[in-house]
Structures
1.
Amino acid sequence: MLAIKLAFKNLLGAGLRTWLNAFVLSIAYVVIIWHSGILEGWNRQARRDMIDWQIGGGQIWHNDYDPYDPFTFQDAHAPVPKKFQEQFKSGHLTPVLVTSGSFYPEGRIQSVLLKGIDSEQSILKLPTGSFQKHEDAIPAMIGTRMAKNNRLREGDYVTVRWRDAHGTFDAAEIKIVRIFKTSVPAVDNSQIWLPLEQLQQMLQMPGEATYFILASGQQPVEAGGWHHQGYDVLLAEMDEIIRRKSIGGTILYTIMLLLAMLAIFDTQVFAIFRRQKEIGTDIALGMTRSQVIGLFTVEGAMHGVLAAIMAALYGIPLLSLQAVHGMAMPEGMDDYGLAGAEKIFPVYTTALIIGTVILVMITTTIVSYLPSLKIAKMKPTDAIRGKLQ
Amino acid sequence: MENSELITIQNLVKHYPMGKNRFTALKDINLTFKKGEFSGVVGPSGSGKTTLLNIIGSLDSPSEGHIRILGKEIGSLSNKSAAHLRNHYIGFIFQTYNLMPVYNVFENVEFPLLLLKTSAKERRQAVLEALEWVGLSDKVKSRPKQLSGGESQRVSIARAMVKKPPVVLADEPTANLDAENSHHILQTMEKLNREFKTTFIFATHDDKVIQYLKRKISLVDGKVQSDERLN
């Protein structure tokens, strides 16, 4: 208690120097929390978007289906099992049929995945309601990336070619009835979405599907020839990307912290050097060296406390504002291969804030303590006279 | 106890290493100090006055010999015990006042009592009393930079005396003061010596201080040359 009282008094007495140090350290607090919040928000958003646009509440795959091996698509299909009918009818499960094909935008040939999905599904955010009966062509929808890469617009007609269940090639014109914007490239790039029934007809696979998408919270039903894939598999790649992004975040975090600690360390070294006379006097008046070391350590550590208060004063309004309004991401992120929403909404968890405060306090205390150890080697008789050691 | 021996110094020697050689600052010092003495260790610069005072004050330890203060052997004290001794029983007055610049007068004088863990009420009472002794009751809120040299030294005296220690060590207390302030300081310390029977030991070469001493111990080249009662 005495050390805290004396330290606080000394800190306030140091005036501008204290506040400048505290301000620098507060910037470290705010930047670390902000950056971590952005990453957390980005990551949560990416997971959420993936769930909303691609994987739903989980998937049930045909046993032969491997999304990374197009050669499996030819055989990875089967009729919708009777056991799935109840969930299907209640809208808690939707089938998707997948096949490889080609399409010919502006006379060029492009490989593409043709995916058929129920136009009345509401599990994924895909605007399947846009599928309407078109007499002149098969309705299709594509993502904005697909549209941009192939210079397609809504209303355009494109020829697609596919191979049906009997191995026969066939072709037809499709009409782009909807171009949707999504942050999930996996439902956009090189994919054309068609009404399920239409694709089943094209492939001569009536009532068949390659995989099923479950609604959130739905329990998968067991059926022979099909197996369930949970988030642990479906989000594994995303989790790995997030993990790697976090490493970068941690590096930045660490650099920020080191810079702030350098400021505190330098301040402590300078303070001890400048206040040798005071240290000698403290010892002469009856403080033990340990008490003096403790005093300087607490003084340094209290910068962390002052910085936390400062950071709270300006950080809370700033970060709260951004959490509500989001941070606009630059256009053209896709060009760099970065998938992301137009706006990122940072997420500042209690664990992040408390963890950051604790981490900064601990590191501040350590870098305050280390230079204070020099006091143990000081000669008080020389220090009292102001003789520099 | 009247005239009890507070400090006993026997065959005290102090060496300092200087490269391969060593410098002997104090050579075979034998002295005793009784309660209520107003003594001074007098000598030119480099005679060992400050060294002797530092050892008496347990800020330094003897190389050879013994020194007992209030029954405690200085040479065998741990750092913690030495700090305890200084905290409870010894007051220091320094040549350059050594006031804490960030504390005001009250807080500077209060500092030793904080270390003694005295209650806030008792501290306040003691500090105001000490400031009254030195005539600075109106400067309670002033900072050291707002004080004159004489006022600063009086604050230093108040700080040394606030815990009413049996021993006060004053190292060149008038070195940075003019004649008028020097006399004022010395008169204050003389008054406190009479009132509280505090033993004052000075290290000085100032004639103004020597005038007030009741006992003059002359130190030359680390040796006691003479030890005479004055007045």
Note: The first helix of chain A runs from residue 2 to 13.
2.
Amino acid sequence: MVIGNSASMLNGAPVTTQDIDLLIRDTRLNRRKLARFAEEIGGSAPRRVSELSNVEWIEGDLAVPVEIHFDRISGGLTFSSIRSRAHLVAVGDEKLAVAALADVIRSKQAANRPKDRAVLPILRDTMAVKTKIE
Amino acid sequence: MGRKGGRSRSTAKRSASRRNGARGGRPRNAELFARTVREVCIALAPQVPQIDPGDLNLIVRCLLLPPARRAVFVTRRKDGRYVF
């Protein structure tokens, strides 16, 4: 499932990002899929961002790295809760499960890093406009 | 019988086509899209006065784009140049 600012973009927010964040369930099958995915994008094996974090990243031929989050993200958001509000977005021949903008905002509020605080105003504005348009 | 092609002789139709497109005929898709964005912004602006008009324009544009055109990733070609 696509989360983070990639999800914001696919939700229509005018933002950019330096990575692609994915949220998956931490299962043996998914670990195998992840290794295959890394291979397909010509990337490194997934490795931890830091010792203190369970987030992993893949450096590949995509020019931006792919960050993998397992089971939950900031804001107490679990895979199931995010998936229940996610929607499918067609990109080329693929359909991507994309986290709802409200969930991206909630996780960024909770993470509260400078880069999250920088992007929150435009995400909130997008949310307000989206609500009016829909 | 009926119209056999060629330009319409109606002045009203000819002037309408001049209004719609710069050189007559249907306006380009980009023109139509820009008009729609502008119309939506005008309608929404009073409802979201806290949003800067420039930001509102950006947001509405992104929301009205088809999802596949919203995400722009930079990728490196084999020749080392970067493309969208």
Note: Chain A touches chain B at residues 6, 9-10, 12-14, 16, 20, 61-64, 89-92, 122, 125-126, 128-130, 132-133 (CB under 8 Å).
3.
Amino acid sequence: MALLLIVLLPVLGALFTGAFAGNNARLNSLIAMLAPLVSLALALSLLPAILQGELVLAHWQWLPRLDLALSLRMDGLAMLFALLIIAMGLLVLLYGHFYFSGKPKDNQRFNGLLLLFMTAMLGIVTSENLLLMLVFWEMTSLVSFLLIGFKADQRAARRGARMTLVITGGGGLALLAGMVLIGQIIGSYQLSDVLASGDQIRQHSHYPLILLLVLLGAMTKSAQFPFHFWLPHAMTAPTPVSAYLHSATMVKAGIFLLARFHPVLAETDLWLYSVSTVGMATLLTGAFVAMFKHDIKGLLAYSTISHLGLITLLLGMGTRMGLIVGLFHLLNHAMFKAPLFMMAGIVEKATGSRDMQLINGLWRYMPYLMVLTGICAAAMAGLPLLNGFLSKKMFFAETLQSPFTGVLGWLTPTLAAVAGLLSVAYSVRIFHNVFFNGLPRDLPVFPPRPPARGILIPVTVLTLACIVVGLVPQYVVHTLLQQAAHAALGAPLPAYNLGLLHRFNLPFLMSALALTGGLVMYLYRRQLFAIYDRMPEVDAKENFEWLMLRAGNFAERQVHRLENGSLQRYGALLVATCLVLAGSALTGLTTWGGGVTTPADPVTVLAAVILMAAAVAAVVIHRQRLLALLLIGTCGLFVTLLFARFSAPDLALTQLSVEVMAVIIMMLALSFLPQTSPRESSSLRRLRDLILAVATGSGVAVLAYTVMTRPAQSISGFFLDNSLTGGGGSNVVNVILVDFRGFDTLGEITVLAIAAMAVFALTRNLQLKERVTRESGSYWASEPHPVILRMIARPVLPVALMVAGYIFLRGHNLPGGGFIAGLVASVALSLQYMAGGLVWAHQRMLTAFRPLIGAGLLLALATGLGSLAFGAPFLSSWFNHYHLPLLGEVELATALLFDLGVFMTVVGATLLILANLGNLMTLDGPGKEIG
Amino acid sequence: MGIPVWLEAVIAILLLLGALVAALGSLGLARMPDFYMRLHGPTKASTLGVGCTLLGSLLYFSVSGEGFSVQEVLITLFLFVTAPVSAHMMARAALHRRVQAVAKTTQPPRELGRGERNK
């Protein structure tokens, strides 16, 4: 439980900040920090057990048939990352509070998203189930999209966010494929099982594919070459976001993945060469480009890329010591890179710029920040007595003992030293350029505003951490690191001592060389900048945008081939699909089944003939829209009569009221169209439609005939038997609607609501040209709303509403119900519209149709869910009989509440459609929106 | 359960009358020369014709069934309220759209025609 809380508390905090804090920035940040604080306390309470080498597991079922379980795991590796994530998150929240000072709305949004992100990251590192890990993995991609696009009104931010989402999200998909492959080979998605079967996977023929997919996931997330380009573009994010996502957490997720799957995938030649090549390429590219970036955050981004490459290289070399060094450097990197990002944010706020060509000599204005930055930059460069020195020296030592032989054997340490040299150069640059190097030039804000005191707290804390870890690593991080490496390796560790690292040896010499080389390089920077400026520029963003545009256009073209916006085509495809599917099933039909048992009486035959004639006539004269509509209405009325003839009063009532409503609404819609439709389709197309229609119609006829003539076991017996006992109503149709098949009804009214909303959305801003003006024809009948109809409509309304109420109440036992009652009420209300006009009607009625629809849906849903509270399945109805004075025996059933929901939805939906279509009809076009 | 013969005769006459009026109404709808005249047919059929039929039904079920039959009364009531209104609306719609009437029956509206008459 503690584990689950650790992961979920931040998200709860996010909900609380959103719900309660409002505009009070201080309260908001306080709540936002409270949740991770509790998380941190819980994590620390587990720490002693973890340091003892224990493994804490927690397991809940989620979707067992997909092997997706909510199982969490806390071991050394997870603990290392969890502490990093929570602690850094707390500091960044504190930093963000001051960074966003004066913008409480932004601060609130930032807090919420950051907490959400924290949960996602914690989820990744503590997942025991591979699929669960993927869920969190994608969650980080999505939330980072929102965080990078924080300033959504800026184009660069949107593009950066989109690029990140595409790259990391795409990597996530590759990872999903890899995980599924692993799960299929092992037969389990539990991490413990997977970690135990490394040999099985390594020997499997799919191993290269799995490795490729998992690496794709890890490399995209950790911005490894050649996917590194998203990280600099993600710098459009607010600086707190960069400090958290792009130095400490998200970009480390890929590293975590490599470490986590080390026992499963590592220690093969393929792993060695692929991972270390990528790592080395990233290390050098990042370090080289970083030197030439004039934007502080750009420099930091490329330096982050290079450090991530360094860690990847260490993991790739696959030595056990390498893993420890990698994790150690990961920790150190978070400690010195995050404060540097924070510095960038402070400087930007103070001076209004991040361009190092402008920002110079800030030591006068921010001496304290200068000291802190100096320490962090020194740690990044790898100066002795600081944490960066230790991990970098260990890195050099590892490259000297790399598993490579021959040329690679000495090339690796050489390149490592070059990268070290470059990193010294850019570290010196970020410190010297910002705080010294003459005087500020043309700053947007001058003199620089001094930073708030509080914003320096997180920077100070992290800087102190750099020093402490650098001085006495063996006391601070050693045990945890050891447990983390142990968990990642799944094997005993080699002996080492972090405390002895300050001694002089060959790696020390490499460090010293890198240091002097870097300083020299910085001294000659102007010449180097000049050379760099002459190099061809590759703009990743433009290329990426071009690629995305091309991909989007391509996809659009492909979609348009099938989906060309023609309703006729969709209709034809739909009908053809039905025809093929049902027709292929019908080909198995060998006999026609039994004979017809019900004799045909002349009246029924006559009605059927009229029905058919009307249908055929509607097809023939379909160009005259109004006539065709009337003929369709005739068909509907005759269907109603047939329902009544064959003892289906519920259906007849429904059909009748639907028909009335449908004709009214269709007439409204038709009034926007010409009276006759032009001839547009070719004769070939008409032939196609004719064939389709005839075939489908005959198919339905055959289907109906065969079903009705063969003695089949139908389900109706069950409904008849159980309606009264199980559903508490003697109207079987209604009991089916609200109880047996209540879920269907819920779905149907949802569809109805969606349709009404669609009409609302479509008509809301629709401007129709050229409405027919009222003047034509007013010569004879000038009154738009004749007085006779108006006067008759008024007394009809209460009567009709009473009928609706009557039908509604008796629905459970006698023909009726919420649907019919809703339609009757709608018809009565639409009569008021017709008689008095839109304005007249709206002055006299409530028009909150959308809330009505929503309330209806919610009521129906709540009634259904209510049965869950009593341990019954969804939508079971409860009923009992009461004896009330005066009224006598009364039955109360929850089905009535459900029916009320149906009623409200139906009334709301029909009136919403009617009123909005009617609104379009008014002469002045769309006025105030209705509903 | 016997119904007196004279009552049966009344019911039969009512039903026949209803059917006759309905048939005449339909005939009128089919044969009358213009819209305004055609409107008369169904209006008469739906009030007088259906009314007679309902009266017959009312008598029959009130005597043979379980007491006084209310439905027919209600149906008649609603029919008598709504049928004229719908006919009126149709006539107005036709006027609004300037549907042509047969020349014999054409007469200008009173207010505008006054000057004409004075000539």
Note: The beta strands of chain A are 56-63, 68-74, 879-884, 888-893.
4.
Amino acid sequence: MNKNNEAQRMEKILGIIYEMIDTLNAESDGIKVVKAPNTVLLGTESPLDSLMLVNLIVGTEQRIEEELGFSISALANEKAMSLKNSPLRTISSLAEFIAGIVKEQESLNKNTAP
Amino acid sequence: MDSPKVILISGTRKGVGRYLAEYYAQKGYQVIGCSRNPIDFQLPRYEHFQLDITDEEKVRKMFFDIRKKYHGIDILINNAGAASMNHVLLTTVETVKKLFSVNVLGTFLLSREAAKWMRNRPYGRIINLGSAATSLKLEGEAVYAASKAAVVSFTQIMAKELADFNVTVNAIGPTPLKTDLTRGVSDDKIQKIIERQSIKRYAEFSDISNVIDFFIRKESDNITGQVIYLGGV
């Protein structure tokens, strides 16, 4: 995949995350989550409560699978759940993390295709 | 029933699982079953997946396929289980790993993936299989009872975590049934267990479906984190 395609993929993933944030914001009476790459998702600076975080991660995972048409590894894996340098800490790190999983899965699917 | 609810039952190749598959298919549910080994039966409104429920990627793939075809699931019955009866001093590490893997990890994986798809829907039910061995603290079943105790704790805490998603989580604790799990146990030992029950008889498969019917009723949406033991244990 060339750089252009990778940029398109990142854009698509960010679009899906923002779509999820729109849904969360619509359901929330409290603070709204800003749709920006540097928005913090984890820790005390995060505007998300634990339920919103669960919905964001699971909803994004499901939308990505629908979009791609195949199952990907769970986003809630050991790496993601590690507090130190978690890929879930901001919107941009989450998008990069998902892009890595998708790339890995696509390459696996290519190698195992009949 | 307005539209057929989709019900996933693990361990449907034989015993209680197969009975439940037949029972709910006959009641008009769309039943999806799974087992590690192939099945030798077919049913209307029944689809089977062959997989190891402790394999995370295979479990996720099954849920992805279910989602594509049925747009989600309404009810999960974590029936698949493994048992082994032996004195703790004669129990192998392999046995412990197997029991915890199937009974706890398998239940966890199916529940986690099912709950993801039940989320944001008005109705979701997860029913786990505990065992009277836990509450009776049966000698010779230390590891099996411990794995089922883990299922009970998992049920009770998951019930709290999934309450916001309109998903109830409950468990049933059967007393001895005539299945493969008890085949290797002597009649004398089973009889001693039955003597400790308030209602002194073998459990029937229909005793289990009766409790599940209660848990999955629409009106049971205020019942969660509960364990119902058969036989007054």
Note: Strands of chain B lie at 6-10, 30-35, 46-50, 75-78, 124-129, 167-173, 227-229.
